[in-house]
Amino acid sequence: MRKLFKFLKPYGGAVLAILCVLIVQAYCDLSLPTYTSDIVNVGIQQKGIEEKIPYEISGEDFGHLLLFVPADKQGTVEDAYEESAESYEYNGTVLRLKEEIRNDNDRIQELSEILGRPMLLCAGFDSGSEFAVEMETQMKKQMEEKMQEQIDLQIEAQLPDFDQMDIYDIFGQMEDSQLETVVGEIEEQFSSMPETMVEQSAALYIENVYENLGIDLDQKETHYILKTGGKMLALAALGMLASILVGLLASRVGAHVGRGLRRDVFRKVVGFSSGEFDRFSTASLITRSTNDIQQIQLLTVMILRMVLYAPIMAAGGIFKVLRTNVDMLWIIALAVLLIILVVAVLFTIVMPKFRVVQNLVDRLNLVSREILTGLPVIRAFSTEKYEEQRFDKANRDLTRTNLFVNRAMTFMMPVMMLIMNGVTVLIVWIGGHSINDGTMQVGDMMAFIQYTMQIIMSFLMICMISVMLPRAAVSAERVDEILTSDTLIHDPEDPAVFKKDGKGEVVFDHVSFRYPGAEEHVLEDITFTAKPGQTTAFIGSTGSGKSTLVNLIPRFYDVTEGKITIDGTDIRDITQHDLRERLGYVPQKGVLFSGDIRSNILYGNPDGSEEEMSEAAEIAQAAEFIREKKEKYQSPISQGGSNVSGGQKQRLSIARAVAKHPDVYIFDDSFSALDYKTDVKLRNALKAKTKESTVLIVAQRISTILHAEQIIVLDDGKVVGRGTHRELLKSCEEYYQIASSQLSEQELLQDMKEVG
């Protein structure tokens, strides 16, 4: 994970912008359940009445309400209302809440606390419930008995007709002390009532008050639902825009991370010495540059879209739940615990397989590359069946492991859905009892379900990422292994420069070399001087170290002991670019690049003229077959030069080196694919071109190096002979054995006579 964030570090500004947009998106998503709850609770159940106290009230209802307001608070309530000039269907006095109080939340809250219980009592008495009827009957009876005790029986006919009085009239005739006692007894009976029911009773009372005034509650309900729905649509639209913007930004950051990693890996690989290529196989490098970086890019997008978003949603959802219903918080904790348990089991099972998958992808690429590269040999030896079986085994191993991982992942989703649906049923069950007990409203339960799903989904997203993370982490390690690998060949911190008058004299001064990690030397104590205007050739049995020796000059490897100088300057003191600018290198196996003949010849000298290109082709004996082509030098070259023969490929490789005009030519067995006639013509033309340059030739054929001024014979990494062809025939047994296997006895005798 640390390496993944390391790759994201250069894009910190974009990540911060994404985080800000995610907060906006989370706010929109978390606000929607609240509005859904409001539509159900306020819009439908309360007829759109969201006021905590009545804003308009008839004088009669106001008087009834004041009956239950404590004496010391009545003045506060009376001062809050004024007579309204608006006309309603109600014919009596109408009072309205003063405008300055409507906009003062603190005053509204104060009045709500004062009028809360009185509105509850009035709502109860106005509802005509069994409790209200029973209380009214009981109070009438008590009032009648009390009055009969206080008046003379002779005026009994003048007693009030209690049957014609309502409960408010009875309360109105009570003394203050008696009224407080009765109200206190009633409130004591309601003391255990949940706050939710008190709020609902207040809304019910306000609804009755508005109906008495003739206010159109249907219109009020419709207006509230449309207003709240409009807010929900606006929030949904804003959330959608935020989601689109996050997707765009995350995709751009992911693409830039992928592009940057591919660029950095390519630059690193281009700077690899041969030692690093021995460590990382070509198939592995291709996999790391494509599949592994693709995994990192994919997870980067998911981190920015999901991993950053999930904690925000989880924290916001928990905050909202705490404000909705704390009693059911244990349900969320249970769901999260189950999800973590399931993911932990899967994580333990699947994680070890991700590294296996990447290694199997490497293996499949390696087998595919070997088969495609060696297809002619496979056909020649009729081993197609064997190679098919080898590829099929690598393919089946990868498929089997991928199936195991995917089956484990597909098992996760049904279990998660079971947990989520089970949690929903549990919430409905517990919430239904709470609604029945009056401690919760229907809208609150709906909001709780939505918040719970958001919280669970947030943890689910984090858990899903945690399961995917190991594979991306493995990919990140593999890519980082390349980026942080130590390159064996380094440019000096304070590089030297070649002498301006230097001609390209190459000196090996007691050079020894062994491959990185090897115990034995491949080359041991090699000393010679290759002078400008002369040809120095290297010959020896297979594995004697000829190609390794010339590969030390362009610093494909660095010497283990001793030093190599060009014009007296140690090549390790020169930058690799300056060193290789002076070299013309033709590898043992001709390499061409897709393009055309012109681009391949001028590959090392892109600013070269047409004359230089034609001259190089003439010297390399390539002009003849180029002229036969329809498009001449613009003739296309396929990838790897597959549309030209081996000899043509080798001649174009030689032409490429000639067109560069180097001071030092290195031919690593570059004439092996040429026929004898072409070989002779090429060497004669090359002799004239390289008369002021140093030429080093690795050869297997004696005929190629017969006229070399210096021939060095190698055997098992050591110099066993040095001299001209004729000198070596007499002084070096190893050279004589090679010559006798290639030249006729007559040619050998003639050459030895000339020496003698």
What labels describe this entry?
single chain; 756 residues; alpha/beta; ABC transporter transmembrane region fold; Rossmann fold; 4 domains; six-stranded mixed sheet; four-stranded antiparallel sheet; 65% helix
Can you characterise this structure?
By secondary structure, the protein is an alpha/beta fold. Helix content is 65%, strand content 9%. The strands form 4 sheets. A 6-stranded mixed β-sheet has the order 9-12-13-6-14-15. A 4-stranded antiparallel β-sheet has the order 5-4-7-8, with no helix packed on it. It starts with a helix and ends with a helix.
Question: Helices and strands in order, then pairings?
Answer:
Elements: H1 2-8, H2 12-45, E1 56-58, H3 59-67, H4 71-80, E2 81-83, E3 94-97, H5 99-102, H6 105-126, H7 130-150, H8 167-173, H9 176-190, H10 195-213, H11 217-270, H12 274-279, H13 282-307, H14 309-324, H15 329-373, H16 375-380, H17 384-437, H18 442-483, E4 506-513, E5 523-530, E6 535-540, H19 546-551, E7 561-566, E8 569-570, H20 576-581, E9 583-586, E10 595-596, H21 597-601, H22 610-619, H23 623-627, E11 636-637, H24 646-659, E12 664-668, H25 676-689, E13 694-698, H26 702-705, E14 710-715, E15 718-723, H27 725-731, H28 733-742, H29 745-755
Parallel strand pairs: 6-13, 6-14, 9-12, 12-13
Antiparallel strand pairs: 1-3, 2-3, 4-5, 4-7, 7-8, 10-11, 14-15
Percentage of residues in strands:
5-15%
Main β-sheet, in a few words?
6 strands, mixed
How far the N terminus sits from the C terminus, by CA atoms, comes to: 76 Å
Rg from alpha-carbon coordinates: 47 Å
Q: Could you say which structural class the secondary elements and strand pairing correspond to?
A: alpha/beta
